[in-house]
Amino acid sequence: MTGNVAVSRADVPDQAGEWVLLSYRLPREPSGPRTAVWRKLRKFGVAQISDGLVALPAGPRTREQLEWLSEEVIDSGGTAIIWLATPGSRGQEHQLAETMAGARAAEYDALVQAAAAAAESPITASAIRRLRNDLRAIQRRDYFPPAERDRAEAAIQALAPVPPRGGRAASRDHAAGTAP
Amino acid sequence: MRWATRKGIHIDRAACAWLIQRSLDRHARFLFVADPANVPADATAFDVPGAELSHHGGDCSFETILRRYDITDPVLWRIAAMVHEADLDDGRYDAPEAPGLDVVLRGLSMIHSDDEILRLTGAVFNGLYEYCHAAMLLGHEPS
Question: ipTM score here?
Answer without folding.
Answer: 0.84
